[in-house]
Amino acid sequence: MTLTVESGAAAMLRRCLGDAVATGTGAVTGLTVRDQSALTSSGMDELVRLAVFGEPNERELARWAIWEIGQAVGVRSASIHDLYMARGRGDCHGFTVPAINVRGMSYDTARAIFRTAITLDAGAFLLEIARSEIVYTDQRPAEYVAVMLAAALREGFRGPVFIQGDHFQVNAKKYAVDAKSEVVGVKALATEAIAAGFYNVDIDTSTLVDLTQASLEEQQRRNYEVGVAITRHVRALEPKGVTISLGGEIGEVGTENSTVPELRAFMSGYNRTLASQAPGMIGLSKISVQSGTSHGGVVLADGSIANVQLDFNTLQELGEVARADFGLAGAVQHGASTLPDGAFNQFPICETAEIHLATGFQNMLYDGMPPALRDEIYAWLRVHAAEERKSTDSEEQFLYKTRKKALGPFKRQLWDMAESTRANLGQAFDRKFNFLFTQLGVAGTAAAVGRFVQAPEQHRLIPSASSGPAATAAAHDDAEAGE
User: Fold this and answer.
1) Which residue from 201, 208, 267, 193 is spatially nearest to 230, judged by alpha carbons?
2) Contact, 275 vs 245, CB < 8 A?
3) Could you give the residue ranges of the DSSP H alpha helices within 23-105?
């Protein structure tokens, strides 16, 4: 099927949603939603499938339609920056924002997140994807935003949707060979992501920390200097009315625990450098630290996960300094999804601002998929990920550490699992997200989000009339885009 401009958009919407949504005319048409109940029907399932698996012109029109429907009913990509600044001032507290990496079976997984949010009246949660995940899950930013917004619409959620670029990371080895090209690569990803609707970005230049230097200032120098360069790039791309929430990181997750002097060295250097290069520019809203976890957990030879000694005292102390001395929301904890259930209620007690959750949900997906599909994936990994197998790895360790790499190649199969399988997984996700949201204290946070966060209306050009699939109607100051 070939679709073009307004007639194509109208035809697609009639096909999926009947007369519930009507298009306007012109390059920036906007949409009128006549019947919001249709958005929670199987028609949204069809529209989001076109946004992911349709022909190129179908995909772009479907993504545009989902975005515009969201604008019409108040389901809009938003920045959590102002809520975090309120947290830094002490105007709200007592909850820890979950940042959930949605990797596989993304639409169904996100639907479970929004069902939980509606049930618990939660508004403070992030949906995120990292630089590396974008590649191995085969989810470019424009697709990811469309899927997340469609899931919210399908469940009847209303309010800001916080979509985050997690670990927009500078690769230390590539930086050592060609620093400029590696930083340009991160900036290019930020440009793509912001255009798609990522209004929260975690800048990860912690890979550049140089522990061979004598002073903490020098150890952190490249971390904060490159972080400032990426900050300036991001700020130049902000849509009108949006202050993107930016996070920094002072130490790689999985290494030695962070310290207060390291935090002070990084933040002082970052703020000083930003003030000298771009006076008045807004900086970070949070800071990621290391306090004892690792991404994905530590897998043992039998495939089980080792116990983790998480240092909540360190986490609390770093958060207190981040708020009191630098006005940030507090400290951010990565690698938390494989922690024991009894740990999660401690995060709001010690006022952790945000925790990142990923691998635990991936584990649930693999546990709940049909055995035949899992066996097919494992056979694929033994061939296509063989170079990642270490001589010391057991079969269970190898498969556990590499199976994330199959999520992209098997994306269609995961979306197409039997309805009964997806329903069972959805119920398992409902229980898990309900538990996590309750333990983290985000139940009832819709009121705080409503108080502090504004999500301005942003209309987009119909793709065939624009310079790109995610172009907005408003022009931006791109002076630093090629920096």
Assistant:
1) 201
2) no
3) 42-53, 56-73, 81-89
Q: Among 230, 56, 244, which residue's Cα sits nearest to residue 140? A: 56
Over residues 341-379, the pLDDT tens digits come to 999 999 999 999 999 999 999 999 999 999 999 999 999
**b/e sequence 436-449, b meaning 16+ C-beta within 10 Å:** bbebbbbbebbebb
pTM for this entry? 0.92
Assign a CATH topology to domain 77-452. TIM Barrel (3.20.20)
**Domain edges within the chain:** 5-75+459-465, 77-452
Lowest-confidence region among 15-29, 144-158, 314-328: 15-29
Cα–Cα dist 272/281, whole Å: 11
72 and 30 Cβ atoms separated by less than 8 Å: yes
Structural element, H or E, at residue 411? helix 411-415
Cβ atoms < 10 Å from Cβ of 73: 17
Q: What is the pLDDT of residue 452?
A: 98
Strands 21-23 and 31-33: antiparallel
Cα distance between residue 253 and residue 258, in whole Å:
9
Please give the full DSSP string across 129-160, using - where no structure is assigned. EEHHHHHHTT--HHHHHHHHHHHHHHHT--S-
Tokens (6 digits) for 85 = 């600044």
| Closest to 284 (Cα-Cα) out of 235, 240, 219, 333 | 235
DSSP assignment letter at 306: P
SS3 242: coil
pLDDT given for residue 335 in this prediction: 81
CA atoms within 13 A on the CB side of 340: 7
Which phi and psi (to 5°) does residue 355 adopt?
A: -130, 150
3-state secondary structure of 357: strand
Q: What is the DSSP letter of 166?
A: E
Output the DSSP codes for 362-380. Answer: HHHHHHHS-HHHHHHHHHH
The answer to whether residues 51 and 62 touch, using CB atoms and an 8 Å cutoff, is yes
Residues in the chain: 483
- Share of residues in the chain with pLDDT > 90 (%): 83
